[in-house]
Amino acid sequence: MASKNAAKRTSAGSPGASAGPSEKKRRVENQALRDEVIHLRRLLEQSRADIDPNSRTLSTSSAASSRQFFDLLGEVVQPASLTRSASPSYHETVRATIPYTQSALEFELMCKHPNAYHILEPHGPSEPVANALLTFAESPFRARVRSTINQISQPPGLQQRNALCDVGLRDLQISYWTVVPVSNDTAASIISLYLENMHPVLGTFDADLFLGDLLNHKLRFCSPFLVNAVLYFGCQAYTFFDSTAAGLAWQLYDEANKLWEADKSTDSILHVAALVNMAYAGSSNGHDKDGMKYLKLARKMADRLGLEDGDPDAALDVSETNPVSDDIRSRAHIAWGYFIFTCGYAFYYDHPPTKSTSSLPIPGSPGFKLPSYMGSTINHICKFWLLGREIVILYAGASNSIAERVPLAAMESKYQQLLALAENFATKSPQGARVPHHTAILHVWYHTAIVTLMRPWSGKNVVLRTFDSTGSHPESISAASLRQLKRLIIEIRLYYSQATYNIQWHPGLLFIANAVLANSANDPEWQFYFMACLYGYGVLSTAYPDASLCFKGLLALAVESGKMPASRARFLAQELSRHGEQHDPTKSYSGIQMNLDVGELKERPGTVEELASRLESTVLAETDDAEVEDDALFDDLINFG
C-alpha cells in the first residue's frame, strides 16, 4: 500500500515539478545513501554466506590476545568508509565470523553473561524481514497459531475445543458465574487464552485451584467477581480473533463492577486478585483512570489483608517433600501476583512501590508446582521485580538529580545483581525451539530495567569498575541492552503470535522508539526501528485501545522533535484507521509516560494521552492537500528494496 501511495505522489508531479536545486541535491544525497546501505547489506550477507558456519563461535577469541581482540571489536565501520570492492576486506571477514558487537564491553557481557546478553546473529535477507515488520499484517515467518480459539471464519467456541489449556474447561457452565450472555465454549476459550497468554507473566492467582473451583462451582478459590474480571481482561486478547468480543468485554466489565459494588465491604484475597485484573484491563483498554481506581482499591485492601507486611523470619519451610497447602498456595500466588502488579506500576508509571516484599513462597519454587503452560517464568519474574522494586526505591526523588543523590557503587551493585539474576533465565527450549513468549517478555522487561538503571548516569563521564574492558561506561551498557531490545522486538514480532494479542511486551517498543529518536543523528537505522515500533503498536491495536494511543503518541513525538513530516504522520494514522481501529480514541485515556529520552521535548507533557491529543488537534486536524510528502527515506523503509 505504501508503494502505491508513493507512486501516486510521484505521478502527481508536484514534488518533481517544483523541486529546486537544494531539493534535487537532497534527493541525490538520499539516493547515494540508499545505494550505499543496500550495497553494505549485500556485502555483509555475502561475506557471512562465504564463511564456514562452524567457525561462528566464541572460540575466535583464543586465536589472538584478549587486547587485540577487544581492539578489533572496538573498530566501528561506517558505511561511508567502505570501499565498493566485490569481495569483503580481511577485517570485514573477521567481524563477520564473530558475534557483531559495538564495543569491547558488549562483547565481554556476551561472554560472561550469555543469558542476559545473547549473541546477536543476523536475521538473513533484509527485505523479507522488513516487509514482515513494517506492516499491520501477521508475520509470514510464523504459523497462524489459533491454538486456544477458533478461526475467525467459524462460529466462536464451536471448534478446536481440544486445544483448551485444561480439558476440564470443556465442561464449563459459565451461567453459574455470570449473567452476561456468553456461551460456555466462548467463555472456555477466553479463559484458556488468558491462562496461556497473560497468566504466565502476571500470575494473579493460582490457576489450578481457580479452575478446580470454577468447574465444580465452589467458592474457596474462585468468586463471581474474579471470574467476570478475568473474562473482561481476557476478552481484550480474544478480540484479535473475534471482533464481537469487544462489545462482550464491556458487558463483562459492567457485571464485574456491579459484583464489586455489591461486595466491596468484605475484604477477601480473591477480591485483590479480581481488582488487579480490573486494573490491568482498564489500563490496556484505554481507560487508565478506571485502572487507577482499581489499583488504589487493590492496594488498600491488600494492605488491610497484610499482603504488604512481609516478615522474612516468618518464611515457610517448603520443599518437594513438604509442599505448600492449598490455602497457602492461593494466598502466595495472589500475593506475588499483586507484587508484580504494583512493582510494574511503580517502575513504568512512577507509583509508590509496596511497603515490603512477601515472605510467602514464590510460585514455581520447590513444592509449589505450576501448570505446564506456565513454565517457570513467573518464578524469575517475581525475583526480577524484587530487584526492580529496589531500583525504584534507590532512585526515588527528582529524576534530574539521581546521579548526585545515589553513589555510583550502589548503581553498579544493582547492575551486578541483575546480571547474576539472569544466570537462571531460560534461553533455549527443548529441541532448539524458541523460548516461550513469557520468557521473551521477561527479557524485554529485564533490559528496560537496565536502561532505566543506567539512564541517570549517561553523559556523566563515569566508569564502572567491575569490568575488564576499557570504556565501561553506563552509555555502553545502555547501548548493549538497547541492541538486545531491538533484537527482542524484532523476534517477538516475527516469530510469536502473541505479538498481536499480548500487550505485555510493549515496554520494549516504547524504549526503542524513544532511544532511536533521541539518537537519530548517530543511528543510521533509526527510522527502520522507529517504524518497527510503530507497527508493533499497530498490530496490537485490534485488541488493545491503549496500543492505538501509543501509536499516535509516538507519531506526535516524531513530529514534534522534527524527525517526521506531518504528512507522513497523517498517512500512518490513516493506515491505523484502515487497519481497523475499533475503538473511539476520544473515549480512551492512558497515563503511560511516552517521552523517556527525547531531550528537546522534555519540558512538554509527555504522557500517551497528552501526546495523542496534541497529534489529533494539530497534525491530524490539518487538511491542507497542497502539502505533498516527499520523504524518500521513509518510503524506502516501508518498501525495502
From TrEMBL:
<feature type="compositionally biased region" description="Low complexity">
    <location>
        <begin position="11"/>
        <end position="21"/>
    </location>
</feature>
<feature type="domain" description="Xylanolytic transcriptional activator regulatory">
    <location>
        <begin position="191"/>
        <end position="363"/>
    </location>
</feature>
<dbReference type="GO" id="GO:0003677">
    <property type="term" value="F:DNA binding"/>
</dbReference>
<dbReference type="InterPro" id="IPR007219">
    <property type="entry name" value="XnlR_reg_dom"/>
</dbReference>
<dbReference type="GO" id="GO:0008270">
    <property type="term" value="F:zinc ion binding"/>
</dbReference>
<dbReference type="GO" id="GO:0006351">
    <property type="term" value="P:DNA-templated transcription"/>
</dbReference>
<keyword id="KW-0539">Nucleus</keyword>
<feature type="compositionally biased region" description="Basic and acidic residues">
    <location>
        <begin position="22"/>
        <end position="32"/>
    </location>
</feature>
<protein>
    <recommendedName>
        <fullName>Xylanolytic transcriptional activator regulatory domain-containing protein</fullName>
    </recommendedName>
</protein>
<dbReference type="InterPro" id="IPR053187">
    <property type="entry name" value="Notoamide_regulator"/>
</dbReference>
<dbReference type="Pfam" id="PF04082">
    <property type="entry name" value="Fungal_trans"/>
</dbReference>
<feature type="region of interest" description="Disordered">
    <location>
        <begin position="1"/>
        <end position="32"/>
    </location>
</feature>
